[in-house]
Amino acid sequence: MGKIVRFPHKRSYWPILLAGITSIYFFYCFMRTGLALYQTNLQIRAYQEQKAGLIAENNRLQEQIKELNNDNYIERIAREELGLIKPGESVIIQAVPGQVRPYIPPASGNEFRD
Question: What is the mean pLDDT of residues 3-16?
Fold first, then answer.
């Protein structure tokens, strides 16, 4: 009997090529998703910093509102900027050398009342 000759059978490279392309596609999808997640985290961090700044600004404005509603502050502004006086008080105007400043009393009804 004769020898059986076996021919080397050709290997198909399609499965390997398909597996390689699939791997590259999944790697691309993974990297794209990772980049989107990274950018989203950067936006979240920026919004958190903006939120902290707005909270600090809100706290500062709340303190300013408290100060503006304080009776002592209101009285000081009424006296200094509006020239109002309480009934029975006298106004003293400091003299400036070389300058004459007449006193103009507030109109009637502009007295400062408690």
Answer: 73
